[in-house]
Amino acid sequence: MTAGANLRINSARLWDSLEEMAQIGPGIAGGNNRQTLTDADSEGRHLFAGWCRAAGLTMGVDTMGNMFATRPGTDSAALPVYMGSHLDTQPTGGRYDGVLGVLGALEVVRTLNDMNVQTRHPIVVTNWTNEEGARFAPAMLASGVFAGLHSQDYAYSRTDMEGLRFGDELARIGWVGDEVVGSRKIHAMLELHIEQGPILEAEGREIGVVTHGQGLWWLEITLTGRDAHTGSTPMQMRLNAGLGMARITERVHQIAMSHQPGAVGTVGQVKVFPNSRNVIPGKVIFTVDIRSPDQTKLDLMRGEVERAAYAVAAELGLGCEIEDVGHFDPVTFDANLVNIVRQSAEKLGYSQMDVISGAGHDACWINRVAPTVMIMCPCVGGLSHNEAEEISPEWAAAGTDVLLHAVLEVAGVVG
Ligand code: HGY
Ligand code: MN
Ligand code: MN
φ and ψ at 24, to 5 degrees? Predict the structure, then answer.
C-alpha cells in the first residue's frame, strides 16, 4: 500500500519547531552558535527529547551521545528505518544546517501520528553528536564511531581549542547514554539536509536527489620557526611561521584551481603563536580542507598539498609536521533509495534534480553500514556556515514531504 500524494506534513508546525530550536544557542547575527557538547547543545537536546516524548517516541542514547527516538512498527522483528541529522552548529552557523534534518524527521512522525498511519518497520528519529567537527575534529565524529571508522577512545580523546576532552565534555553535559555505540542495526537511513550550495536555487529545483557525496581530507599543519621582535629582527634572519602559513594557503588555492571542475581547497582554521602584534610568529597550526567527488583528484591534491607544505617550510627554514585529522572517500548512495526519493518527489509534483553533496554529512558514514540516501532542499544564495543562512518554509516543507513519502515507501504502510 502506498500513501496518497495528498498526504503532506504540517508546514507551519515544522517551521514553528525550527524557530523555537533557533532560540537556543543564538548567534550574534540571527543564526546559531550551538556548538557540540556545550550547555546550549544540551538545552537543544532536552527540547528535542521533550518533543519526542510528546510524540510518543521512546528515546535511546548511546555512549557517544547519539539520540534515537523510536516509533514502533507493526513488525517488531523488522529493522528500523532511520532518519535524522544533527543539532550541533558551527560557531557562526545557520538555523537550518542539520536542524532541518532532525526536526523534519520529527515532523514526519508527528504527521503519521495525526493521520494514525502505521508502518511495518519501526521508524527512528536521530540526532548525531558532533557532525560539524568545528569544536572537536574530525567532522561526523559520532556517526563515524557508530559506523566503526573511529574508536570511541579516539573520539573521547579529541580536544577543543581550550584543551577540553570530548569524553569529559559529553559527561559534563550529562549525555553519555547507556547504549553501546554501533550496536543498533539499521534497515535504511534517510537524511534531509539543506544543500549548502547554489545549484538547486539557480536551477529552480525544489528537491535535490543526492546520488553521491564528495570526499574530504583535513590536514593539520604545524609550522615551527622562532618568535622574534618584529622591529629589530632583519628580514633575512627571520624564521617566520606566519609567512609559511600564508604561502601554503596560496598554494592550496592554486592546487584546487588546477583541478577544476570539481575540487575545492581552503584554510579556514588558524592558530598563531604567540599571536602578538610585535612578535614574529614562531609557530602556526592550521587545517587544510580539500575536497572532490573524484577519488583520483582528491588523492592527487593531498599529495600536492603535502609536497608544497614541506617545500615552503624548507625555503623558510621552518619545521613542518602534517597530521590527518579528517578523511572520507567520495560516497555513492544506495541506488534503490535514490530511486524511491526521485519517485516520491515526482508523485508529490516537486521539481527535482540529481546532485552531489559538496558538504560532508552523517549519511556519508552511515552509508558504510546500511543503505543510505539524502534529500536536499535549496538555500538562499547557496549560503551556509554563515548566520545569514536562509531557506523558505516552502522549501522546508517540500523536502520534508519527500522525506515522509520516501520513508513510508521504505518502512511499508500497514492498513
Ligand atoms: O564539513 C562539512 O562538510 C560538514 O558541514 N561538517
Ligand atoms: Mn550539516
Ligand atoms: Mn555544517
Answer: -95, 125
Residue 174 exposed, middle or buried by CB count within 10 Å (0-12, 13-18, 19+) = exposed
Q: Judge if the beta carbon of residue 331 lies within 6 A of ligand 1.
A: no
Query: Can you tell me the distance from the alpha carbon of 153 to that of 129, in angstroms, rounded to the nearest whole number?
Result: 15
Confidence of residue 21 (pLDDT cuts 50, 70, 90): very high
Ligand that lies nearest to the alpha carbon of residue 102, given by its number in the listed order: 2
Fill in the amino acid letter for 260. Answer: Q
What radius of gyration do the chain's Cα atoms show? 22
State if residue 389 touches ligand 1 by the CB under 6 angstroms criterion.
no
Q: How far is CA 212 from CA 4, 15, 292, 367, in A?
A: 29, 28, 11, 11
Q: Report d(CA 156, CA 43) in Å as an integer.
A: 21
Report which DSSP code applies to 190: E
- CB atoms inside a 10 Å sphere around CB 254: 11
Is 131 touching ligand 1 by the criterion CB < 6 Å?
A: yes
Rounded Cα distance between 212 and 333, Å, is 6
Q: Give the cell for residue 60.
A: 535511546
State CA 339 to chain mean position distance: 23
Q: Please give the backbone phi and psi of residue 320, each rounded to the nearest 5 degrees, phi first.
A: -140, 120
Q: What band does 308 get if pLDDT is binned at 50, 70 and 90?
A: very high
Closest to 373 measured CA to CA, from 146, 132, 85: 85
Q: Flag whether the pTM goes above 0.85.
A: yes
Distances (CA, A) of 353 to 67, 375, 384, 394: 31, 11, 20, 17
Instruction: Categorize the per-residue pLDDT at 415 as very low, low, confident or very high, splitting at 50, 70 and 90.
Output: confident
Q: What is the distance in A from the centroid of ligand 2 to the CA of 196? A: 8
What residues pair up with 290 in beta bridges, in sequence order?
217, 265
pLDDT tens sequence across 223-268: 999 999 999 999 999 999 999 999 999 999 999 999 999 999 999 9
Average of per-residue pLDDT across 378-382: 97
Looking at residue 139, the DSSP 8-state letter turns out to be T
**Cα 2 to chain center, whole Å?**
31
Question: Distance between CA 270 and CA 289 in Å, rounded?
Answer: 12
- Rounded CA separation 318/164 (Å): 29
- Which atom of ligand 1 lies at the shortest distance from residue 90's CA? 5
